[in-house]
Amino acid sequence: MASISFSGVERVFRQNGQDFVALQDVNLVVQDREFVAIVGPSGCGKTTCMRMAAGLEHPSSGTVSVGDQVVTRPGPDRAVVFQAFALFPWKTVWDNVEFGLVSLGVDGAERKRRIEHYIGLMGLQGYERAYPHQLSGGMQQRVAIARAYVLDPQVLLMDEPFGALDAQTRVVMQEELVRLARRHPRTVLFITHAVEEAVYLADRIVVMTGRPGTIREIIDVKSIRQAENWDQHSRIEDVMDQASFVHLRSHVWKLLRSSGHGADVH
Ligand SMILES: Nc1ncnc2c1ncn2[C@@H]1O[C@H](COP(=O)(O)OP(=O)(O)O)[C@@H](O)[C@H]1O
Ligand SMILES: [Mg+2]
After folding, report:
1. Same domain, yes or no, for 181 and 259?
2. What does the pLDDT look like over 204-241, one tens digit per residue?
3. Residue 92 in contact with residue 31, Cβ under 8 Å?
């Protein structure tokens, strides 16, 4: 079972000589092959949650587990996609996607099969020999997503992966991620401060509020998406026109605004 569990998680940081509680009483289980988005204002602790799941950061109390293992360090069962395209600039697209597979010990023929599959799904055919600096931001982030999926990790952790993209590229990437996520369901923890993005992508949305960062509400999107058959629309703007979508989006906004920090959210 590739679930991600936050159990009684608290994180205290020291800033300017004083302790402050960045995260308090975070309890959340992302189920096997569930796509959960966390939304919340800047500074509410979203990245800290993701870094704890990645093993790059540790709770002050409580535990974060993946499957039945408490997370203590980074591992190949978890792939991370950051906002900044963390590609190797000296490696080609193909070699960037291949990199983690080599360390996992996947054999050559299987590597080739998987790389071709995800390069195709992410629309990167023809760019295999290009270097990151020759690609647009959107293309670079496709490489980062292909590189994460190709490892077939138990869980994917994405921290505002589309945050640095222009609005049009972002929409294309959101549509592609939805196609990818429906075709290859994985356990995904997806962090964003964009409300529409969360409603469009996620099975459930965790709405956080800040100071201290805590979970305000968890919203089930999947049952509404399925009941209203959003996936019959291939274009994001057609989904966003649905009354059920508009209603959910405004519900999330109200939650964020009522916390008093809604102005921080884009
Ligand atoms: N290593 C650290 N040391 C001190 N404070 C930190 C550290 N990491 C994060 N913080 C603080 O914790 C809070 C939550 O940060 P972060 O998780 O990055 O929020 P978000 O991703 O939601 O914007 C912020 O106030 C931030 O300044
Ligand atoms: Mg962040």
Report:
1. yes
2. 999 999 989 999 999 999 999 999 999 898 889 999 99
3. no
177 in the same domain as 248: yes
Paired strand residues for 78:
155
Question: What is the residue type of 166?
Answer: D
One domain, residues 106 and 203: no
Q: What is the dihedral angle through the alpha carbons of 61, 67, 68, 70, rounded to the nearest 10 degrees?
A: -30
Q: What CATH number is associated with residue 213?
A: 3.40.50.300
pTM of this structure = 0.91
Residues 117-142: what's their mean pLDDT?
A: 92
Nearest Cα residue to atom 12 of ligand 1: 22
Q: Tell me how far the alpha carbon of residue 12 lies from the centroid of ligand 1, in angstroms.
A: 10
Please give the tally of structural domains in the chain.
2
Percentage above 70 pLDDT, the chain: 97
3-state secondary structure of 242: coil
User: In Å, how far from its chain's centre is CA 201?
Assistant: 10
Which atom of ligand 1 is nearest to 51's Cα?
A: 17
Put the strands of the sheet holding 214-220 in their side by side order.
78-81, 155-159, 187-191, 35-39, 204-209, 214-220
Establish if 85 belongs to a structural domain: no
Task: From 152, 186, 201, give the residue that closes a domain.
Answer: 152
Give the model confidence (pLDDT) of 27-42 as tens digits: 999 999 999 999 999 9
Within 13 A of 137's CA, how many CA atoms are on the CB side? 14
Å from CA of 47 to ligand 2 middle: 4
Report if residue 165 sits inside a domain.
Answer: yes
112 lies in which domain range? 90-152
User: What's the rounded Cα separation, in Å, for the pair 139 and 151?
Assistant: 19
